[in-house]
Write a structure and sequence with these properties.
This protein is of the alpha/beta class. It is built from 6 helices and 15 strands. Bound molecules: citrulline.
């Protein structure tokens, strides 16, 4: 099964939470067209698209990755760190239940955003920072370690989420933009990228990677490594501290 969960953009997107960036005007219609193009790439690469119903009252609901973490047929419903985002989980649960996933939950006082969870095989790096606390990480580890995962906590202080700083290539190399990374020495194989968006990839299959269009030098580095980057413009989501990973949840099983 290769299903991708996505969620349409609330008309209130411009009111989304900002932590590290200054608020800038957001063109919601452009954002919607960018979302359509992003989803089209997933569909073209063979992903079965499932939509979580939009929650207009939640400006950040399009960033569906933060509400659920998938691992080996288990859906861990998170407890988002920002209070305005906590209601986002409600509509996610029935969708993943429908996929046949076992449901687990992060509960108070734990908090976790899916953007803080980087899975590389059975190794799962979890960023502890503004959105994900130690209690959330401990609860998550208790769920996934019996399934064979090894959870490694890493600090996140410079950007919103761990995956705002680093993601991983199909061969497991962790890629990051150094000014955003707290400690790259925790990753056995690390490659510094020349652009911030160059650190963010969605693995579509063993050779295709989805990335933002504002990192051309990073795209060339991927090509030089034998990968095929597919670039999408997500300018309106970047203004809200989003990146390509957060606009979908990939379910592989
Ligand atoms: C927030 O602050 O929660 C949203 N404005 C952005 C969330 C982006 N999510 C992600 O990178 N996983």
């Amino acid at each position: 099964m290769t299903v991708a969960l996505v969620r349409r953009t609330s008309s209130r997107l411009a009111d989304g939470v900002l932590t590290h960036l200054e608020r800038r005007p957001v063109d919601v219609e452009l954002a919607r067209r960018q979302w359509d193009a992003y989803v089209e790439v997933l569909r073209d690469r063979g992903w079965d698209i499932r939509e979580v119903p939009v929650e207009e009252a939640c400006p950040d609901c399009v960033f569906v990755e933060d509400a659920v973490v998938m691992f080996k047929g288990v859906a861990v419903i998170t407890r988002p760190g920002d209070d305005t985002r906590k209601p986002e989980i409600l509509a996610v649960e029935p969708i993943v239940r429908d996929l046949g996933c076992r449901i687990e939950r992060i509960v108070a006082p734990g908090t976790m955003d899916g953007g803080d969870v980087l899975k590389i095989g059975d190794t799962i790096y979890v960023g502890r920072g503004g959105r994900t606390n130690q209690e959330g990480i401990d609860q998550f580890a208790a769920i996934v370690e019996p399934l064979g995962a090894r959870v490694i906590t890493v600090p996140v202080t410079k950007v919103l989420h761990l995956k705002s700083a680093v993601t991983a290539l199909p061969d497991g190399t962790v890629i990051g933009w150094d000014p955003a990374v707290d400690d790259s020495s925790v990753f056995p194989s690390y490659l510094a990228m020349p652009e911030e968006s160059g650190a963010h990839v969605v693995l579509l299959d063993d050779e295709h990677v989805l990335m933002a269009a504002d990192a051309p030098r990073s795209a060339q580095i991927f090509r030089d490594r034998g990968l095929i980057p597919i670039e999408v413009d997500i300018s309106e989501y970047i203004k809200l501290e989003g990146c390509v990973t957060c606009l979908s949840v990939r379910v592989r099983s």
